[in-house]
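S.,

As promised, the D-glucarate run. Input:
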Amino acid sequence: MDTTLLIDEVRLTPILIADPPLLNTQGVHQPYTPRLVVEVVTRGGVTGVGETYGDSAYLALAPPLAAALRGRPVSDVNGLFALADEVCGDSRAAGERAAGARVDAGGLRGVQTSDKLRLSVVSGFEVACLDALGKTLGLPVHALLGGKVRDRVEYSAYLFYRWAAHPDGGERDDWGAALDPAGVVAQARRFARAYGFSSFKLKGGVFPPDQEIAAVRALAEAFPGRPLRLDPNGAWSVETSLYVAEQLKDVLEYLEDPASGTGPMAAVAAGTDVPLATNMCVTTLAEIPEAFARDAVQVVLSDHHYWGGLHRTRELAGICRTFGVGLSMHSNTHLGISLAAMTHVAATVPNLDYACDSHYPWQSEDVITTRHVFEDGHLTVRDAPGLGVELDRDRLAALHRRWLDDDGTMRERDDAAAMRKAEPGWATPPIPRW
Ligand code: GKR
Ligand code: MG
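Predicted complex:
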């Protein structure tokens, strides 16, 4: 065994990153959202980086795994899963308690389970190990995953209804409000101009369905023939979903999570030819058999965090290929480390059937020295060793300082609590909402 590959130290840095007031069915994004940056340092002096969700449920699981990793080789990424099972026992219960208190955040990520929590944490370590291994061997992460099958990965614009500013501080930006079809089209035009995106996803479930249908119609008029998607995060009943599908069937590439749960999704799928995509109904291996047997979803949108990292995402791709189900990737509020990881794995998957979506353009801050740049709606796959990104330690320290200074209110993503700042009576809406 090459001892330079052994892990000497693991650093965990929780941070808070600025997030604009983006609306979704549960509320609005807080001014700052938590992420966790994982650094794995080898005896050879190489540091690999990873990033994952940073709410307390995830933070509770990370320290025991970090401690147990010392002395193990960075190349043993398969061993991470058994190790996490072994060492995260007690803290898993703590994580679950924290997750239970935050169903709002879990809800948008599908049903939260202890396995999914653990896998999301493991993913940050897996990416950090792959980065360190790649840097040691002089190989990009995509080569460690078997090699890229494309040089560029396509992303779609991720449009959000939004306010011009948070009601209670936060960073300012110049995007302005987008609360109607004209606002959504203006936002899409800016995305197309600045980043070259040619497909568009609108986060829905915010306004009554007819208003969102009007927004998608306005997009179709402004961008004839371009792929369009609408994602209400499971906010609609089967009946409403079928109504929306009927109204938009000529312009939608797919409808994303119109209804919540495998049964309702299967009922919608049975009543429309519009393909259904999901990042909520199929989020674990255990959910696949029933969803695929019932043809509830035609496209699975992986989130490499909760699927357990990059190797597991490739396993998911193989399963989708076997069953003739489409594959792509969705995102959450994330930084450049996660976007790099997503791009590396996306580059290796032959059946990447649709443009991935990324929140990244909404993030004004990062912890890497050279930010990713979308060109013609694509990211070029980096061929430098590891992920091909470098940690900006000053930025990391500043964002960690913000986390330390927080009074606790931003350390959990809680879109309903953020909404109550503007609408004191706001409660997380029932499912289905419409
Ligand atoms: O950030 O508001 C949001 C999204 O709704 C996010 O939480 C989802 O996980 O973007 C995601 C999606 O449903 O595709
Ligand atoms: Mg979605």
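The chain has a mean pLDDT of 95. The chain is about 40% helix and 15% strand.

- D.
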